[in-house]
Design a protein that fits this description.
about 600 residues; alpha/beta; Rossmann fold; TIM Barrel; seven-stranded mixed β-sheet; six-stranded parallel β-sheet; 19 helices; about 40% helix
Length: about 600
């Protein structure tokens, strides 16, 4: 059968045109393509990203999707995505229904896995797949090709019986991952993403190369941990591929695509020291024998207990950075999240990464049910003491479907309307913390601003910068109003010199954060305490007014205390109108490069 697989558009509802490298492409579609092709079906793909020139994302999707249907005449169409892709999936299914009403639509991915009844009945595809999709989609496509309709024999499937949704038995006992074919990216324009959109990847996935060609790799599925905010609460168990099988895929992909950066996507790649060392040994052998030349990045958990010698071996094998799921530096919050992480483990990992000159990365997400202004202060203190020079990001915790946190939000009426949640996802915040709304939302607003400007990052001025004129012909640059610069600078941490290529747009009115900037929180607190004393004197005869004013002043003081925690990390450098955040390829710490002099224009020979 002819099968069309339609990948979701990145930031469909919130940003158009959307540009992405293959580091953000949903790998699951490539696995579905390879499984279907192995079963003898014809597979076509649509990757509606990197496609500017339309008035809106919906107009682009209408044109590209209806065009792909007309060109390929599919007999089955597969769509899927995460809960954040709800708007895309809703529009895509509507466009398919209008264009080819009789072609069956199959929907899968996280949006189905984590909330199948609601998503299936709301989006109304013909079928949905719960869990990993390869085997189920192949069985369903084979069945449709044969003319049979005994859908109950296929596990993990949703279908319609008249107007009623039906779900077959769940069976997540999948086969050995080593027996699955390697992902097939060809139907989705992989070469275009590699050739033209490497600079669209987040800086952490590309800073080691001036002409980045990042490739992704999945070495395991699911996760053995059950953090309360994570969607791995149910479904398939954690399974990992063998090192031999992983090396075979790298060999195929390296020969085919000549990538120079490898991003291992698993949340838990190095589950223990032995696995990491086996992988490093295999890489070093191939690097020596086959001339492999790429840098690589992985994620792991503190329980892996990696030692300094493991880190040094990884560095020798080409690893430039790894990340932990930090989430918080408050013991009470970590316990509430079921993180099974201890702060001494994290401190040891940071120190060992620094000793091996490997970058350390991670996220702090604020807002767990145990979060208070005290726990926020604990995390900020830890950041200030250990992580100011590392690749750390801030965000607020999100109650995604499939997590314990989401279920709690529904139960406690924090989320009152599930459809409204899906339709406005990422457009609103939810206070799941122990802090009052009057304190929490101003804190999140301040946090959001700091998270995008990185005011604590040390900065240097570029000693050389030049604009590359050929960038004017770059689609990515043209539609984002950016220019391509070649920049040279010295790392403020190790004094290592490096060259970078970066797409930049001058930021008008970008406030400069100067050295030694002092927060004004103490003056604010003194004024609030003075107001409290005045209220006490003038409201003695009216106790209800006294209680009201004291409550308001207490909220103001608490709000200022938590906001001032962010002020304390400012003042380590300056932010110029033309600047960017990057990493040092020598010590792999983070810093900012400012372009303070008018860049020259590079002349390129034909």
């Amino acid at each position: 059968m002819r099968v069309l697989l339609v990948a979701p558009t990145h930031n469909y509802k919130f940003q158009y045109p959307s540009f992405l490298s293959n580091t953000d492409f949903p790998v699951g579609f490539a696995y579905l393509a390879s499984a279907l092709r192995r079963a003898g079906h014809d597979v076509f793909g649509l990757n509606p990203n990197n496609m500017p020139g339309y008035a809106s994302a919906h107009e682009m999707l209408q044109s590209k999707l209806s065009g792909a249907i007309k060109e390929h005449q599919p007999q089955v169409i597969g769509v899927g995505g995460l809960c954040t892709d709800f708007a895309f999936l809703k529009d895509a299914i509507q466009i398919i229904r209008t264009t080819v009403p009789d072609v069956p639509i199959v929907c899968g991915g996280g949006i189905i896995n984590n909330d199948a009844p609601f998503a299936f009945e709301t989006l109304r595809p013909d079928f949905c797949v719960i869990g990993e999709g390869e085997e189920v989609l192949v069985q369903l496509t084979d069945m449709l090709a044969s003319g049979r309709r005994d859908y109950d024999t296929i596990p993990n499937l949703g279908y319609w019986k008249g107007t009623a949704p039906q779900f077959t038995r769940q069976d997540f006992r999948y086969g050995d991952l080593d027996s699955r074919p390697f992902p097939d990216y060809e139907p989705f324009g992989i070469n275009d993403m590699l050739d033209h959109y490497g600079l669209a990847a987040r800086y952490l996935y590309r800073y080691t190369r001036t002409d980045p060609r990042p490739m992704t790799l999945v070495t395991a599925r699911s996760c053995p941990f059950r953090c309360t905010f994570c969607v791995h609460q149910r479904g398939p168990k954690y399974r990992a591929r063998s090192i031999e099988n992983i090396i075979q895929e790298i060999t195929v992909m390296y020969d085919r695509y000549h990538f120079n950066i490898l991003i291992i996507l698993d949340e838990l790649f190095a589950v223990n020291r032995r696995r990491l060392r086996e992988f490093c040994a295999a890489l070093m052998e191939r690097r020596k024998a086959l001339g492999w030349d790429f840098d690589w990045f992985f994620q792991t958990h503190a329980s892996a207990s990696l030692q300094t010698e493991d880190m040094k071996m990884a560095r020798e094998a080409g690893c430039y950075c790894f990340s932990y799921g930090l989430e918080s530096a408050s013991p009470s919050v970590l316990a509430s999240m079921n993180k099974r992480t201890k702060l001494p483990q994290i401190v040891e990992a940071i120190e060992r990464a620094h000793a091996a000159k490997i970058g350390f990365g991670g996220n702090f997400i604020f807002g767990d049910s145990a979060e208070t202004t005290t726990t926020v202060a604990e995390t900020m203190e830890f950041l200030t003491k250990h992580l100011l020079d590392d690749h750390i990001y801030f965000d607020s915790i999100q109650p995604y479907p499939g997590s314990q946190l989401f279920d709690s939000c529904l139960q406690n009426k924090i989320i009152r309307d599930k459809l409204d949640f899906y339709e406005h996802i990422h457009q609103q915040w939810y206070n799941t913390s122990a802090v009052s709304d009057e304190v929490w939302y101003p804190w999140l607003a301040k946090l959001n601003g700091v998270a995008w400007t990185f005011p604590w990052v040390r900065s240097v001025n570029a000693f050389s910068s030049a604009e590359e004129p050929e960038a004017a012909r770059n689609t990515f640059a043209a539609y984002t109003g950016q220019k391509l610069y070649e920049v040279q600078a010295r790392c403020p941490h190790c004094d290592g010199e490096a060259r970078y290529r970066e797409l930049l747009r001058e930021q008008d009115g970008n406030p400069s954060i100067s050295e030694g900037q002092k927060p004004s929180g103490r003056l604010f607190e003194r004024a609030a305490r003075l107001l409290s004393k005045i209220a006490t004197v003038y409201c003695r005869e009216h106790k209800h007014l006294l209680k009201y004013f004291k409550n308001k002043i207490s909220i103001i003081l608490e709000r200022q205390r938590v906001v001032s925690l962010l002020d304390r990390i400012k003042g380590r450098g300056t932010i110029a109108a033309l600047s960017f955040i990057t990493g040092c390829p020598h010590c792999n710490k983070r810093f900012r490069i400012n372009i303070t002099n008018p860049p020259a224009t590079l002349s390129r020979s034909p």
